[in-house]
User: Which sequence fits this backbone?
């Protein structure tokens, strides 16, 4: 058999030509390289009989069993079996290869000696027409339009099913294939889903992946997801995210909900986020993050490198390190390059840049962007009027903050190569 | 907290106008107003009991649609596909499209009729309206558009006032509401089917469900959702009640005949005097525009969601060809029909589609009943026995009436 829709509904006969029932479903068992058809489900009165595929004989125009109707041996189902009509056909799946959510119109099999294997699913319109039994329309269309309707089979390896079974029983979906994609691609996929599916996916992904995916989705979807899943899980995910991203999402939620989630978070994280929530959106304060590396001026170059190695996983950027005094006052900055080049014993105060390019929290995004452009920065410290370091803005955040048109029409600026940006931040 | 939060608060206020209210008030479209007006004008209070029972059915069917959407998180078309397969889904969608096509034609007929009261020729108004609707939907946020129409729907309260001012025979009115009395004439049966069909529509079933899906409700929210749906059904049919009463008291009671929808404006005379026609026209226009804006869109969305075609008003026609094709078709073809028919048929063009809605309703309700009772989809939220009874009764009655209606010319010939 080639297509699932062609086999469903067909009558199965027994060895003496008596009809047993109609095919209600086809069961496959995962295997390498392709899943194999292991059984078919035949509707027999009120009960369904599940017959191993090996016992089914496929002839030209009929399916038959080699035994009498009352002597059919049942198939023993396996844990990871998939019932195609129940769980795959007509349902939505994720095409992991093309980052799309599609509906399965048909399932394609391939016959190998001794077995029938599942090749993939058909989500094309051609498949839909075939499944409806009106394939002749594609012939007509081909005649009218000139080119045939595209037929596309999505390989089973690229298929991620979204449900274990039809219905509201929400089992955690394995999502192995989906979770291996780049977070930006996962975000693109979940944007195509309906809210229920989205929430399920975010609940099923591991916390770190979910935290990477969420910032990549549109702000409305971020807010919707965080509102839908339960506060504890929401707080876990938000903790894994950068505080400025977390603050962005929480800022869009109703106050009670925001409080609910902040209460579930680790106190330090929650405090960071709360602080950032205090700033207006379209300002430097609204863009900044509180994850940066600070050291004291007495530290040696080697000491600083060791410190960095310990901290690096958590910091937004490690290309610049900021030197602060007891009262969090910004007194200098060094770049990673400076650190590696300097003699290991030299205290940082001897080679740090003391007149640091900075910005105040109330400044506009445009002003920040201009500073980035002028001084070729990767990050910009945000200080208040007492020179206390409040946060840093990283170049990716400021790029997102400026609409694309604003960047066009600039007089030809000399292009700087990326590593040139690691030089000393130029003195103001 | 961020300044964004204040924006959020305004959004919450608007969101308080629940989906139940919005979905139900879209019921008072061109077909609705005209059907209720005619019901009162031709049969006095004789159809009030139908309206009363229909309100109960409406509340029940809307609640089922909303519950299905809330529990499964999927649209009606998608659910039909998942339970019954592509073939049955295709049938359901075709039924919906047929019903919607008729209803959209009624909306454009309403636009033509209402603006004709101001002396404007339909050859100008209908194409302009079609273009305006297309731009409105394509360029503006649909939710906001809807809410604007919703607020202007408050104009229907003029029927309430007018109905009270017209001093109807309240004893007769209330009595007719509570005492079913059916006249077995073709005219009455037609009106019966139209009244039900304009209140409980196939598109309404798809609409409420997709609306709820976007709201993403949790189990705790279900009681509020129910309350919202019931309130919506009640209020929208309260308006319908007063439209019928006002028309009965002013038109039927005086023996006036209606051959044109514009004559139904007489119902507003007690309130508005010589402004009755203008007021009526405004109400009808508002209703028609709302309907004409919703129907093509919801038809396209439901179809594309069921068959996995790209959809979305923010996509280009190249990205979502079938979606746009349907959307455009549902604006252009009904407009063309309204322009082509004889102007004397405009009234029929508004009533007959409601009859079609009523005749196709049983098919849709059967799908609803089967899914709403399916444990594998609804878990513990399957229908209660009472709801099943009401829905099944509605279905049975509509099937019976359809048979009677279609058979009535035959019966009349035999007797």
Assistant:
């Amino acid at each position: 058999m080639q297509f699932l829709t062609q086999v469903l509904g067909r009558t199965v006969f027994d060895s003496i030509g008596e009809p047993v029932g109609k095919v209600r479903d086809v069961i496959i068992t995962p295997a390498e390289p392709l899943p194999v058809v292991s059984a078919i489900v035949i509707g027999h009165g009120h009960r369904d009989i599940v017959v191993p595929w090996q016992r089914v004989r496929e002839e030209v125009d009929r399916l038959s069993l080699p035994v009498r109707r009352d002597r059919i041996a049942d198939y023993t189902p396996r844990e990871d079996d998939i019932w195609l009509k129940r769980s795959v056909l007509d349902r939505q799946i994720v095409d992991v290869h093309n980052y799309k959510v599609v509906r399965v119109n048909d399932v394609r099999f391939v016959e190998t000696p001794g077995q029938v294997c599942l090749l993939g699913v058909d989500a094309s319109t051609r498949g839909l027409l075939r499944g409806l039994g009106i394939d002749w329309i594609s012939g007509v269309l081909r005649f009218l339009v000139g080119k045939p309707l595209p037929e596309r089979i999505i390989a089973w390896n690229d298929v991620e099913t979204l449900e274990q079974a039809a219905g509201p029983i929400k089992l955690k979906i394995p999502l192995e294939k989906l979770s291996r994609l780049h977070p930006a691609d996962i975000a693109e996929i979940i944007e195509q889903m309906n809210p229920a599916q989205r929430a399920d996916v975010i609940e099923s992904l591991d916390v770190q992946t979910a935290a990477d995916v969420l910032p990549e989705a549109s702000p409305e979807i971020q807010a919707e997801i965080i509102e839908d899943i339960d506060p504890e899980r929401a707080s876990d995910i938000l903790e894994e995210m950068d505080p400025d991203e977390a603050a962005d999402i929480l800022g869009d939620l109703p106050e009670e909900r925001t409080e609910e989630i902040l209460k579930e978070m680790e106190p330090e994280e929650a405090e960071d986020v709360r602080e950032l929530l205090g700033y207006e959106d379209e300002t430097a304060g609204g863009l900044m993050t509180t994850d940066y590396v600070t050291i004291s001026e007495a530290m040696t170059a080697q000491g600083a490198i060791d410190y960095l190695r310990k901290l690096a996983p958590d910091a937004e950027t490690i290309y610049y390190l900021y030197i602060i005094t007891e009262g969090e006052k910004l007194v200098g900055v060094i770049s990673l390059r400076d650190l590696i080049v300097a003699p290991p014993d030299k205290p940082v105060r001897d080679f740090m840049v003391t007149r640091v390019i900075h910005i105040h929290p109330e400044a506009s995004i445009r002003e920040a962007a201009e500073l980035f452009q002028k001084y070729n920065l990767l990050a910009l410290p945000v200080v208040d009027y007492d020179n206390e370091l409040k946060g840093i803005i990283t170049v990716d955040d400021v790029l997102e903050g400026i609409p694309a048109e604003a960047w066009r029409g600039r007089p030809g600026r000399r292009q700087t190569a990326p590593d040139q940006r690691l030089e000393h931040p130029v003195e103001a | 907290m961020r300044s964004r939060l204040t924006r959020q608060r305004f959004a919450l206020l608007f969101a308080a106008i629940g989906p139940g209210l919005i979905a139900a008030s879209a019921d008072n479209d061109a077909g609705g107003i005209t059907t209720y007006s005619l019901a009162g004008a031709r049969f006095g209070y004789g159809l009030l009991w139908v309206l009363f029972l229909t309100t109960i059915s409406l509340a029940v069917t809307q609640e089922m649609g909303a519950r299905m959407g809330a529990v499964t998180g999927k649209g009606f078309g998608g659910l039909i596909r998942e339970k019954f397969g592509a073939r049955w889904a295709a049938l359901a969608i075709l039924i919906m499209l047929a019903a919607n096509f008729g209803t959209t034609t009624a909306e454009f007929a309403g636009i033509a009729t209402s603006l004709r009261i101001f002396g404007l020729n339909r050859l100008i108004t209908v194409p302009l309206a079609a273009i305006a609707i297309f731009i409105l939907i394509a360029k503006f946020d649909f939710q906001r558009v809807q809410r604007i129409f919703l607020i202007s729907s408050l104009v229907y309260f003029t029927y309430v006032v007018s109905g009270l001012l017209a001093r109807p025979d309240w004893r007769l009115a209330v009595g007719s509401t509570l005492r079913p009395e059916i006249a077995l004439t073709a005219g009455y049966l037609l009106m019966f089917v139209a009244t039900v069909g304009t209140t409980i529509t196939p598109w309404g079933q798809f609409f409420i469900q997709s609306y709820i899906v976007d709201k993403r409700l949790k189990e705790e929210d279900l009681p509020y959702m129910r309350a919202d749906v019931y309130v919506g059904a009640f209020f929208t049919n309260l308006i319908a009640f007063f439209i019928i009463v006002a028309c009965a008291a002013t038109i039927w009671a005086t023996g006036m005949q209606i051959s044109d929808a514009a004559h139904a404006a007489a119902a507003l005379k007690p309130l508005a005097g010589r402004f009755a026609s203008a007021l009526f026209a405004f109400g009808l226009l508002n209703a028609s525009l709302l309907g004409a804006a919703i129907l093509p869109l919801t038809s396209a969305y439901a179809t594309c969601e069921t068959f996995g075609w790209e959809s979305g008003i923010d996509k280009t026609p190249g990205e979502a060809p079938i979606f746009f094709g349907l959307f455009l078709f549902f604006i252009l073809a009904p407009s063309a029909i309204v322009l082509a028919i004889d102007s004397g048929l405009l009234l029929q063009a508004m009533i007959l589609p409601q009859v079609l809605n009523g005749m196709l309703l049983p098919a849709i309700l059967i799908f609803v009943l089967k899914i709403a009772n399916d444990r594998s989809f609804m878990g513990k939220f399957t229908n209660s026995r009472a709801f099943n009874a009401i829905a099944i009764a509605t279905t049975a009655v509509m099937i019976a009436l359809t048979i009677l209606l279609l058979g009535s010319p035959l019966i009349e010939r035999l007797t």
